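User: I'm designing a mutation panel for Putative Zn-dependent protease and want to avoid disrupting the core. Could you give me a predicted structure to guide residue selection? Please restate the sequence first so the numbering is unambiguous.

Assistant: Good idea. Sequence first, for numbering, then the predicted structure tokens:
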Amino acid sequence: MNTIALSTAGLTQANSADDSPQRIEALSALAQRVLDLCKAGGASQAEVDCSESRGLGTSVRMGAVETVESTRDRGVSLTVYFGQRKGSASTGDFSDASLAATVEHACTIARYTENDPAAGLADPQRMARELREFDQWHPQVFDADAMIAQALACEQAGRDADVRIRNSDGCSSSASESVSVYANSYGFSGHERETQYSLSCALIAGQGDGMQRDGWYTAALRADALEAAQAVGHRAAQLTVERLDPRGLPTGSLPVVFTAEVARSIIGHFIGAVSGGALYRQASFLLDHAGKQVFPDWVSMIEQPHLMGGFRSTSFDAEGTATQVSPLVTNGVLQRYVLGSYSARKLGLQSTANAGGIYNLDVAGNVDGLDAILANLPRALLVTELMGQGVNTVTGDYSRGAAGYLIEHGQRVHPVDGVTIAGNLRDMFSGIEAIGRDIDPRSSTRMGSLLIGRMTVAGG
């Protein structure tokens, strides 16, 4: 990727002025103060999360500035336990009076809550001992003029790329940083800090009823890892004009290929189905599937929470439990569920250090990428966009609106719009025939394009 000019034209390095150590120290002291208040209020256990964030966002449209928004946020979220009765509360006011009132509110809730045998902090023996950072902190001085200039350059590059680009839905640039501290009454305290940068562009091609909209974006933890502004604009223009003059498809059964940025939603449904909340509520079609075949025998997925520069890298989960590299799927077999301590207790199992979700998931590919997948397909649907929420995690039934391209003999024939793709997630998972190595770097689910051998395609 090219280095975006934003990294040198106004967003200058701020290492010498980096105040994150002082902010973390202050949040740690605040967390301890809250824990002391919880103990004084009679709580047998307590946990607290303190955070601060700040950011700057700019947006432009048709060569004019639309918004410049500076944000600052902070908050304290706490949970107290009176035995196995639980109460939670939060505040954005760090004053002594507000903290005392918030703690009292949580304690009052706990006193009137029924006992829950699964309630309580995570296992104290599993608290993280080695606290590390994973190259996620790259602060810059936020410069609105530079960010506006980059957004304008990005949009202009897109508008100039093709005469069929008639309008713009805008271009935005954003930068943010956050620091947080989690602490509990075991004496555990851990901090995290992270920066994020993004640049996006959405364009409109054609006119009248034939207009089409599409876009592109780049996102990274450091500004110099973003794609160049001109490249983002050109890519947005290319995707937009390629969607002109779409057609429907006759209803039938076809192989369906999902581009990398869309494919991760399929894996997202799998994660949801093997997560503790869905399992203990018996709201998952993958109940009792640990140790069973879910995918073809070549599919593997590994959680990588200690990945340097990963979007969700961490030494500890949302309860302080130490994270570790852990297979989720091996040779197509589900190795474990995705559990925090509460859901684990509800299921009679052990936490998998996934309070707060999955921390970076590597989905192994078996082909080079999208072109390699398409090359062997006589006729297929390539999906580049999904619409609607027609997914039932209880039954696995899947039905969503889709747009993309008809593929014949490995080539794009024409854009497709207004179709619905349908199936059952159980069959879709077992019917995966290829996963590309063309990883989309903008997500913590690290995977490429995906081919499902057969799905129902309902034409528009």
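For picking mutation sites, this is relevant: The chain is about 25% helix and 35% strand. The chain has a mean pLDDT of 94.
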